[in-house]
Amino acid sequence: MKRFRFPLRPVTVLRAHKELRAREAFAAAVHAYVQSEERLADTRKRVAELEQLLFAGRSGRFAAADAAALFRVYRTDCHAEMETEREVIAARDVMNQRRADYIEANRQLKIIHRLEEKARNKNRVENARIEQNELDEFAGFRASRRPTLS
Fold it and tell me: CA–CA separation, 54 vs 44, rounded Å?
């Protein structure tokens, strides 16, 4: 019986490493995206609180210096919110690219695995055929050795 040897084994190893690196890069991109989403949520919450303070400050005594300082902080936080939104969009784009890279690497690895499985099946069939031929030959020898009863 012939021992199975897959000639593309080095390719399988390389593609498995590539797929692992792509999976890790995708996981890191997902993590970065989630963190940027959390930063955006925090920034939006802070902006909403400042809006409440701005509108609440208009109902009582008006202090122009306090209102101006609060408005400056509000504008700074609005600008930070826009920057954070841009970061979220960039992180989402990176995440989508990493997902596509991972899917492609996984697809390439699956192709090699299917080729290996086909080669293994072909090897099994060939070995079974060889084994059956050997059994047939052995049975033929035994039949030819029997004394004939006449």
Answer: 15
